[in-house]
Amino acid sequence: LRLDPTSQYTLVSQICHFDVLMWLVAAKSWARYAPPRRVWLLDDGSLTPADIGLLNEHVAGLTVVTRGDVENPRCPKGFFFERILLIADLVADSYVMQLDSDTVTTSEPTEAVTCIHGGTCFTLGTDFVPEVVPILEAQQICADRDWTARQLQHEQVQSELAFDKLSNPETRRYVRANAAFAGFARGAISRDDVESF
Q1: pTM of this structure
Q2: The CA-based dihedral angle spanning residues 130, 131, 135, 141, taken in that order and rounded to the nearest 10 degrees
Q3: Contacts 24+ apart (CB under 8 A), 158-167
């Protein structure tokens, strides 16, 4: 994977030992259409020295950080939060694209590349709340859905049902989306935004 010093974006992924080869396929299949300026990998703690050596062989200039390297005084530890905090830190200076290892780019991603070049955020919507809507409308859609008892315990559903507890919910918007493939425009979020949320 070759970096492009003239590129307009930074590629970020969270990775574990078992995903190293999959991530290389995901990153290389994407980057052949849109090479990044920088690549940051967030190690979940399971990468071995051999993994890091292999990754460095394939991505010159790679930056690998662990969850412990990402300052996180206010959010829950582990899982999603260090990744979004890292993105919030990096997005201050660059467009940031989050790419998971379970993706493969098989044809030119014209729409996503246009968003990167235009400085527009993007994400993959899901079947449930697939478009950006006022956050209180999303909360009502969630409340009206017939959830199983197990689904109701999921942190995403619990969060969606509590949107009215956010500060200024009437000014916020929401889309339920997949973080596997998402673009964050420069300055789109801040560490304060993440920590407050």
Answers
A1: 0.90
A2: -50
A3: 163/135, 163/136, 163/138, 163/139, 164/136, 164/139, 166/135, 166/197, 167/196
